[in-house]
Amino acid sequence: MDDLATRDLIRYSGRGAFSPDVIARAEGSSVFTEDGRELLDFTSGQMSAILGHSHPEIVATVREQTARLDHLYSGMLSRPVIDLARRLTETVPEPLDKAMFLTTGAESNEAALRMAKLVTGKHEIISFARSWHGMTQAAAHATYSAGRVGYGPATPGNFALPVPDAFHPDLVDAHGDLDWRRQLDLGFDLIDAQSVGSLAACIVEPILSSGGVVDLPVGYLAALRDKCHERGMLLILDEAQTGLCRTGSWYAFERDGVVPDILTLSKTLGAGLPLAAVLTSAEIEQQAHDRGFLFFTTHVNDPLPAAVGNTVLDVLSRDRLDLRAGELGERLTGGLRELAGEHPVIGDVRGRGLLVGLELTAGSDGGDVDKLGAAVTQRCTELGLHMNIVQLPGMGGTFRIAPPLTATEAEIDRGLAILDEALTHVTRTK
């Protein structure tokens, strides 16, 4: 990419640069550059395009709905919004039976946190120490993985919990394994010591994505819910990346049998288009309404993205993409573990369904894992595979792998083969 291509653009990804190619179009599991190169997209755009790019049914919905009804005054309702609220709440357990629709994950988390503060009458928020919940005010102040330095004081009352990372355990049991129960107890001991008695909510991802694709241990979510409810707090689950079939079930929280007080969705709900949601119980919604809940935005409950959301639900249900994600996830994870047996720099493979983490290690030579991850990413791009590394210092060797749920077995195998070739090239030449 030459300087003219970025001359007029503000850079917005911290110290990172734009990707080197200009993308001209996308279809299925691939994006295509202006010079005609194909890149197999193992990030589903921004972890969002679960139905692949330019899915014909999404394209048809956008064309038809744009011609009929695209945008309204925010106090008006349309049939796509009414239908999506009914259908979406039918996919989740009771008592999550109320929904509102926004545009981005940050916006849905902002609304959820605002609602939790209003309903509880409190202001303190807990999230993980490697969290990412968005770049708007409350969401950004509940984000600890990046973006905190240089912007002035954060909102008072934000606390961080240690991440239960089994590959990098900070507290271990007699067997050397992560002792997450003791870690959680100590985390809340510290929070209780700092709290001014105004704990409102805890917001977490069931699988931390930007935090290194860390799957919460079985039992952790239930224990966290209990800690919250003992203190009169609400539990908010951010399923921007894990919701709607990506992990092999409709929602990641289903594995643990834990129903949150508030659920936020985005990314996958619009399958790449800007659509997000907040779901909660009728009781919480009524309390919020009685206290004057205000989250009036230009595009709240817009008909065009809601129509897309309905089509997404159609395809997910009809094609049983929850099962498909589980099957393809087994193929992907199995292939990555085979590569781990051939490449000593692979330290760990983890995740669920088609949200998989691959962590490289520095090895016995003590090399720079961030540089290693960057080199493998670059080589993958050269060979025709777009991969994403976690943009945290010291974690640049952790790949977030999230192909579309509509990918084929052949595309999964092709991605694995390219990654194998890239690892071989980089480790032989470093």
Tell me what the structure shows.
It is a single chain. This protein has 430 residues and is of the alpha/beta class. The chain has two domains: 3-54 and 321-429, Aspartate Aminotransferase, domain 1 (Alpha-Beta Complex); 69-318, Type I PLP-dependent aspartate aminotransferase-like (Major domain) (Aspartate Aminotransferase, domain 2, 3-Layer(aba) Sandwich). Helices cover 38% and strands 17% of the residues. The chain has 13 helices and 17 strands. It has helices at 3-6, 44-47, 56-68, 79-89, 105-120, 137-141, 180-194, 220-230, 282-290, 303-318, 321-342, 369-383, 409-429; strands spanning 23-27, 30-33, 38-41, 96-102, 124-128, 158-161, 199-204, 207-208, 214-215, 234-238, 262-265, 276-281, 346-352, 355-360, 385-386, 388-389, 398-401. The strands form four sheets. Strands 4-12-11-10-7-5-6 form a seven-stranded mixed beta sheet, sandwiched between helices. The chain has a four-stranded mixed beta sheet with strand order 1-2-3-15. The protein has a four-stranded antiparallel beta sheet with strand order 13-14-17-16, with helices on one face. The longest helix has 22 residues, at 321-342. It is globular and about 65 Å long. The model has no long low-confidence stretch (mean pLDDT 95).
At a glance:
The protein is α/β, with parallel strands linked by helices and 430 residues long. It is 38% helix and 17% strand. Strand 13 (346-352) and strand 14 form a beta hairpin.
| Alpha-carbon Rg, integer | 21 Å
DSSP summary: helix tally: 13
What sequence of helices (H) and strands (E) makes up the elements?
Answer: HEEEHHHEHEHEHEEEHEEEHHHEEHEEEH
* CATH evolutionary superfamily of the largest domain: Type I PLP-dependent aspartate aminotransferase-like (Major domain)
Query: Strands across the major sheet, in which order?
Result: 4-12-11-10-7-5-6
